[in-house]
């Protein structure tokens, strides 16, 4: 659902979304306020979606706070983050009898496609669960609005909407691919504070799901396990003076497939997943890629994560009693529906990008930035800067 790059000169002159021009635009919606009583309702979330759509079409980007105040944005982000924080790294989604599961991949700030997708698939409900696999922001012009809408659904129906983290939900990627600039353009003086709230929420996003006990979903893929060796300091027959000091070291030169228990224990509250050190699982889950070559190997092209072969896929499925589908589908936009009772056969639903849509430019220089995510400036990622 990515958007085609606009004319380079126009993008350089004006990086913000351009509201559509009509002779008689509809009246502006009221300022969004937190609902009385404090609990979100379906009507409130529906009104929010309508308001965000209207703003994208009729309001300059830097005027968004006149309808969507920063205090409201921060309250919604914090409410969702509190829910997400309580969820484990690996969320087990156990549908009730007859309940279908919709799985959605990257949406990258394509607000209008997300609004269409929710309606087309059937909104989250007691009959339908949604699992979003990350990359809500960057590239597209409405990452803030897209993520806020999905957070609202999460707050409304926490057991029917599951939001996983993508590799773009990081400080590094959002500083390079546009989301940080988007927030600053839209919220100006309040931008840094709003942006920090989003970053903290990114840290709370779970990493993976297992649906109906048989389907594994994650933004990237599988992950390595920690290989622990006896420490050279530990001598046979000699007790350690410090009972709290481990007599083991981590071997980072060998690789083995990780276990679900290791995934559950990994520390996910890191803004930029490390590509070195002991806590490599978050980076693997978010950045790894499948390969035709057998075995596990470092993902040298990306500089982070793994490459895993068909044998590793089979090992992971067999070890964890999971199922897989051999189907593949190329399309402009799509979502998958897993239907009861087995949930193991995906049904693909394809659609074209929603039109008409507002003219918009990305909030990053797409000609200067490697848009494939295949190469990273790891030094910049480590220091939290966006220099290339």
UniProtKB/TrEMBL annotation:
SMART domains referenced in this protein's UniProt entry, alphabetically: PP2Ac
GO molecular function, one term: metal ion binding
EC numbers: 3.1.3.16
Disordered as annotated region, ranges: 1-35
One Pfam family, short name: Metallophos
Residue stretches of biased makeup (Low complexity): 1-15
Lineage: superkingdom: Eukaryota
Domain Serine/threonine specific protein phosphatases: 164-169
Catalytic activity line of the entry: O-phospho-L-threonyl-[protein] + H2O = L-threonyl-[protein] + phosphate
Compositional bias (Pro residues): 16-32
InterPro entries documented for this protein: Calcineurin-like_PHP, Metallo-depent_PP-like, PPP_phosphatase, Ser/Thr-sp_prot-phosphatase
Alphabetized UniProt keyword annotations: Hydrolase, Manganese, Metal-binding
Record flagged with keyword Manganese: yes
Cofactor: Mn(2+)
Family statement drawn from the similarity comment of this UniProt entry: Belongs to the PPP phosphatase family.
PANTHER family: SERINE/THREONINE-PROTEIN PHOSPHATASE 5-RELATED, SERINE_THREONINE-PROTEIN PHOSPHATASE 7
Name of this protein: Serine/threonine-protein phosphatase
The organism of origin for this protein: Paspalum notatum var. saurae
